[in-house]
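Action item from last meeting closed. Structure (148 res):
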């Protein structure tokens, strides 16, 4: 009989501990969700603006880029190949979105989206897998935000 009570007591204690942990995990998860939601809203507001820079080019001195991110979530991507095509600018448009610290440009012509890491006062183009570009040319993929 005592042995049955001991086993019952152990099971009851384990049940109470597991319920307490579950409640704490749910509370922590809710707090994390709220923080992520606030960060996403903050990032979305902070990212609006105009970014400029010169990206590397395989067969020309570089590509001058200007990306305008509007508050309505639309963007304009202007690019000019230096010393090529009579320096004629190319304009692409579409919608942008932010998830965490990643900005995604989705083009109206259904071409492959472009992703950027969002930094303070800059965006950095990511590779095709959504990873930061490393190596000697890494700093050349940074576009700086223009002051208003």
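Sequence:
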């Amino acid at each position: 009989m005592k042995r049955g009570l001991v086993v019952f007591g152990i099971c009851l204690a384990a049940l109470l501990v597991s319920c307490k942990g579950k409640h704490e995990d749910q509370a922590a998860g809710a707090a994390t969700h709220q923080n992520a939601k606030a960060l996403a809203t903050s990032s979305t507001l902070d990212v609006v603006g105009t970014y400029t820079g010169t990206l590397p080019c395989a067969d020309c001195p570089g590509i001058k880029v200007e990306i305008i991110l509007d508050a309505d979530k639309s963007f304009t991507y202007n690019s000019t190949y230096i010393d090529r095509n009579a320096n004629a600018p190319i304009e692409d448009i579409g919608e942008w979105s932010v998830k965490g610290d990643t900005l995604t440009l989705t083009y109206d012509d259904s071409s492959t989206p472009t992703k950027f890491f969002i930094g303070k006062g800059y965006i950095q183009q990511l590779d095709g897998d959504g990873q930061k570009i490393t190596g000697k040319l890494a700093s050349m993929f940074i576009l700086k935000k223009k002051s208003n």
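Note appended to the action item: Confidence is low (pLDDT under 50) at residues 1-42.
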